[in-house]
Amino acid sequence: MSPKQLLTTILIVFSTLSFIKLMLLTHSASSSPARPGRSAWDAGGSGNGTAGAATDGLNAKEFALLRSVVAARAPCGLLVFGLSPQLLALAAVNDGQGAATAFVTDSAEDAASARRVLAGRGPGGSAAVHRTTYQDPAGEAWALLRRARASPVCGRPTGTVRKSGCRLALTSLPREVLDARWDVVVVDGPSGAGPGEPGRMGAIYTAAALARAAGGGAVDVAVHNMNRTVERWYAREYLCEDNLVAAKGRLWHFRVAAGGPPDAFCSTAPVQIL
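Structure tokens predicted for Polysaccharide biosynthesis domain-containing protein (274 residues):
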């Protein structure tokens, strides 16, 4: 056999072996059952339930504080900016006659998952889930705050938040959210994880505006991820350090009562931003 014939024979053998190996691998893959991926909802995880990059959920001590705030007011009006299996558990805490729970999320996937979970719990575990779109990324926080400080319409609201002319007010939310009286408001969404992600400026401002516009007793407002600059500045600007009653890790609990200056959110001067 000539060298050329020998080389041809070797190539044919290797090609045949490669083809047989490929067939075996294909058969093995097709006969093995597929393993579907598990979302945070399947695993009972604690993602923040927002579109885009997710931040970590509340740790055990933070969730214990938040749960105690809701339990102390239940049955009550509970509004939550953010949606995850962890946050959805608050609906069961806020149980009893007259309780009303609403979640606001920018994620269609999380909204659908939450509705399936709630439907499986039956009438006793019902809660409303609302979709919204957050227009402003976290990177625009400082420019928005400077404009809000210079705009009279962004001062303390005197009427329904739905009619606010302030850009920070989430006026696209449904009337059943903006016209309701909430006893507890939780801000753990949207993501706000980076400058290009939806920021929580509007959620914090709207929570403060709803609390100030509400008649009657004090409103408890809890803000998560207070280790981040945007959350810290906006909470101090609109929820006020004078109203801070408890903190655990990255979760701060404010109690916003009636009274105070008629045209401002806080009695103290605004925090200077350099």
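The domain at 40-256 is CATH 3.40.50 (Rossmann fold).
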